[in-house]
Amino acid sequence: MNPVIRGAGLLAIALGTIAVIAGLVLPWTIAGSRHPDLVTVAGIVFLGPLISGLCVAYTRAEPRRFRLTAAVAAVAGLAATLVAVGLARLVEPSAGVGLGGPVTVAGAAAAALGWVLLTASGPGALPSATRPWLAIAAAGVVLVIVAGFGVDYAREGRFVDSTTAGDPPPAGGDQTWPLPYVGVQLVGVHDQLAIVRAEDGVRAVWLSSGAVAWRYLRSDLPTQTAGLVDGTVVVVFGTDDGVLVAALDAGSGQVRFSGRYTSGKMASVHGAGKTVVLASAGIGAGDLLAIDATTGTLLWRWTPARNGGPCDVTDLATTAETVAVALRCRAQGVDDVAVGLTATTGAERWSWHTVQRSATELRVHSTGDGFVTITGTSPRRAVFMDAVTGTVGTRHDPAGALAVATPSGLLLYAEPSGERAHLTAVDPHTGTVKWDVGLPGLGSHQPLTATTTADKAYVVWRTPDGRLRLIGARTTDGSATEDRTITCPTRCPEVSVAATPAHAVVTTREDKATELYLSVT
Question: Where are the transmembrane segments (predicted)?
Fold first, then answer.
């Protein structure tokens, strides 16, 4: 048995020494590819590989002191391990833990373990038969696998707190809404789940019971934004040199991919076919990033700039083939531009310019096969353009202050006019009003936000005394489907709504609060 232990110990020392050298060469941080200072590197090399090499040579010359020499080497290896652990813990999580630190720690620990095995086995010859060497090789494979799991845990696992969804709760529950959740954004609704983003990650909530179905949280990085793209929850975390993007199955919470990208701060997530588009917003917005929704491969990046100067991103909408970006450029006067980018390559397909006489920023809405840009305040103008060619089509006057597109390609307008509050559906291809319904009693209300799903539309209105009212209507004819008051525990300055064909979800949140209230219809 001793020859097998002796062989396993020597293999562990060899693998550990190689790992320590490799770890010191590899970067210890992802951002900046930084390494430890030379003094610390020299200390780890001295305590680890150098003393190990000297001890191997000494035991060959003085076999009578084999166990004492091995014990000294084991203590030195343990010291190297502790130094490497302390140094690795100094890496800021926001900079990203590179391979260098964990590999160095794993290598130093493996070498120390090898010397412990040699101390236990004592001096002697190595195995001469084949079978013992197979056992030694198997032990080496196990050591490498364990070290691999340890490295992965040190880089990612220790920061992530995640669960996956189990079976949905039984239907027919009598849950009282609203319920409070840690969160800052309603990401969307998928099947029986509402997805909520918090500063530390995302949680999915069962609509029937309010219980948390799954979660994906990180203790090392803050979230910037999140989006629901074709059944995938895409969460963006901020890092020192860009973002970390995690894609999760919306139904189960299982991780589909995770990757880091160099970029500025992101403000929104959009889906364009099989492409996920990450966009900044406002003054000095950085590059747009597009990644493959299946693999996380970076497809392209695009800089919002015109005439030699940067542009502000004021809005963004997508179809399966095109990403339409609304810009305000100031290099040569104020120029509002809509640019169409190919979803798969980022190549510019078309651009559309407008000159506005007001400070109102350009808005763009997707209508399936095209886009509608809305400009101005009084009067406001809406223009339809083909998604692929950018060909300008029919113009019409928006029929309301709030606009939202339907899955069927119509554009709905909500107007809180004191004369006649109404909800109007317009075909953007022709500018024809498909239907127009009055909303009695809403003249003094203010439309805040809206969403559509299948053949339903939901609009959240604020009453003069600050309460919230959810109005639902059929997108086919405007007939009412919902009219209820949403309980608001506080002033509720921030309101969001999302829906499936079976449920509408409304969230309310105070300014800068880290908790929101969720209501389900």
Answer: 7-26, 38-58, 70-91, 97-120, 132-151
